[in-house]
Description:
By secondary structure, the protein is α+β, with helices and mostly antiparallel strands. It has seven helices and eleven strands. Strand 7 and strand 8 form a beta hairpin. The radius of gyration is 18 Å and the shape is globular.
Amino acid sequence: xxxxxxxxxxxxxxxxxxxxxxDRLRVPGPLRISDRRLYxxxxxxxxxxxxxxxxxxxxxxxxxxxxxxxxxxxxxRTLRRDEIERVEEIDRAEVINHVFHLRDGQLALEEEHVxxxxxxxxxxxxxxxxxxxxxxxxxxxxxxxxxDGLVGIAVLDGKRIGRTRDMVDLYFLHxxxxxxxxxxxxxxxGLVKARAVEMGARRLYVSATPSHHTVRFYMGVGFAVxxxxxxxxxxxxxxxxxxDMELVxxxxxx
Length: 254
Ligand SMILES: CC(C)(COP(=O)(O)OP(=O)(O)OC[C@H]1O[C@@H](n2cnc3c(N)ncnc32)[C@H](O)[C@@H]1OP(=O)(O)O)[C@@H](O)C(=O)NCCC(=O)NCCS
């Protein structure tokens, strides 16, 4: 996923960073009618009257999102093409202290310090260009809003990938610094999953920024290190942790 570290993270060169390889440790507008159905499926809004979620449904629900929405009034909606420029509103600041590497098929966590101050303009314009390309091929974008402010964004690429062309890529996912760990990322992933299923996809792919926090987040929402690395995405982002998740039971065997 385009970000601010490594080749996938074009800001890496500008980030303040030290690395200690020696002590390597071993060890995530308004709703259209069709939108509303997706939001219901993702557990972000309920039908009226609100049904009691059953056990299966509950597991798909963004628990923290529902709790925090009440507190922080986070709302979700699809982003129009002309709103993509607003990605700059997201506060990208992050201090990373541990980064995952994939070594011999195992995740290795290494101490590595990266101070991501914010978006680097070159990286951001490249990301925006790729987001437009995602939308051009039937992709979608969603925003999480606190009041009128954009505090989270997710972009699904509509291009079919994978050996059997039944997988789609979660191209972009960012939550503003002050809004992380409140369930917003989980809420956005829920929307992405619902749309991907609607598109007929059986698996969802992500090229994850290798930071400990981000990889743990993706694991927490159901992704695992992929056994089928997508060559084009790997070439673009070789330092990322490439992950995928099953959207339809049995997709793994295909
Ligand atoms: C990664 C990111 C999108 C996650 O969004 P978020 O809103 O902070 O994450 P959430 O609050 O929705 O977390 C969802 C789940 O992940 C879990 N999680 C998050 N960080 C975790 C961590 N470090 N370790 C273990 N679990 C973690 C949460 O506990 C939560 O699980 P729960 O709902 O079962 O309690 C966000 O932190 C971010 O934008 N990070 C910086 C940019 C980035 O790396 N983007 C991804 C590029 S590929």
